[in-house]
Amino acid sequence: MADVINFAHRGASAYCPENTMAAFVKAIELGATGIETDVQMTKDGQLVLIHDEQLQRTTGSPKLVKDATLEEIKQMDAGSWFGPEFHGERIPTLAELLELVSGTQTLVNIELKNGVVLYPGLEEAVIAEIRRFGLSDQAVISSFNHYSLVKCKLLAPEIRTGILYMEGLYEPWEYAAGIKADALHAYFYAVLPEWVEQAAAKGIVYHPFTVNDSVTMRRLVEAGVAGIITDYPDRLASILREAEEDA
Predict the structure, then answer these.
(1) Looking at the predicted structure, is the pLDDT value of residue 247 above 90?
(2) Angstrom distance (rounded) from CA 8 to CA 6
(3) CA-to-CA separations, 240 to 2, 60, 217, 228, 246, in angstroms, rounded
(4) What is the count of structural domains for the chain?
(5) Known active-site residue 9
(6) Where is the GP-PDE domain (predicted)?
(7) Which of 23, 209, 213, 221 has the largest count of CB atoms under 10 Å?
(8) pLDDT band per the 50, 70, 90 thresholds, residue 246
(9) Each residue of 31-80: pLDDT tens digit?
(10) Of 161, 71, 79, whose CA–CA distance to 112 is shortest?
């Protein structure tokens, strides 16, 4: 039970503006043992952590990430939309997050956002940063773009990959084994105890998303998942402590 990875979804995004350093730091303070984030590429080829392809929702800029330089993005306020106390929070680079977790045991789940916008060289650039910080054993690369995951595994077989998908994928552990993925990042409805068991027999683990209520967290922990992605890492940390005490 205690080994379940507590992945903070976009950081502690229930308490801080998502995908900011404030959210990442808060996640660790609240007991997260992993951080989930989204990576995209700027006009000048820099890796930044943001979920939407457009900057509008979190910064107010109508630009797409791909059409803005890192210098332009670093001038944008990515915190005020969440609350005035976060005014001045910036969109971080992947390097900033990797530097934060370097020297710790915190895992990093990096989602490649390359479905709507295709970023040439994104896989190579992300892998290069992970290796530069010596974090290959602390990283998981995930994506809804499974071609991208295959490419990552070919480029860096030592880095784990996770298949993002919704419901309805038949025997996903067979599919995962076929593309040499290590984990199933399934929408939480698509996780049953017998499926977790069948996946484990293939050496494949489950990291379901995005799980925010305590009842579902407990159900998934009891089902034997290896990790849970949540906006509320404190809730999951509490449940994992309870499970450890009851064991």
Answers:
(1) no
(2) 6
(3) 6, 38, 9, 11, 10
(4) 1
(5) yes
(6) 4-240
(7) 23
(8) confident
(9) 999 999 999 999 999 999 999 999 999 999 999 999 999 999 999 999 99
(10) 161
User: Is residue 122 within 8 Å of 112, Cβ to Cβ?
Assistant: yes
Residues 6+ apart with CB under 8 A from 41: 47, 48, 65, 66, 119, 121, 122, 125
Look at the alpha carbons of 189, 193, 199, 204 in this order and tell me if their dihedral is positive or negative. positive
Q: Quickly tell me which residue has 């060289």 as its tokens.
A: 121
Angle at 200 between CA 155 and CA 103, to 5 degrees: 55
By residue count, the chain amounts to: 247
Longest CA span, the chain? 52
Domain that holds residue 13: 5-39+106-246
CATH of the domain at 24: 3.20.20.190
Q: Is residue 63 part of a domain?
A: no
